[in-house]
Amino acid sequence: MAEEHFLNHAAIAKQGSDTIFSWWAKYQNAKNAGVDAVNATIGALLEDDGQLAINKVVDNAVRVAPESEISSYAPLPGLPQFLDLSKTLALGDARGYLEKAGFHISSTATPGGSGALYLAANNFLERGQTTMLRDRHWEPYKGFLTNNGLECKTWPLLPAHVSDSHPYFARIEFEETLAGLCSKQSKVMVWLNDPAHNPTGLSMTSNGRSTLLDSFVSSALMNESVGHTLLIDLAYSLYAEEPHGWADTILDAIKSGMMWPENLLITFAVSLSKSHTIYGLRTGALVSLHPEKEIIDRLETVMSVTGRQTWSAAPRIAQYCVSKIHSSADEGLAWEDEKNRLKQLLVNRRNALKVACENLQVPLNPTMDGFFAWIEADNPVEIAESCASEHVYVVPLKGGIRIGLCALPLNQVAKVAQALSNAFR
Ligand SMILES: Cc1ncc(COP(=O)(O)O)c(C=O)c1O
Question: Is 17 a residue whose pLDDT tops 80?
Answer without folding.
Answer: no
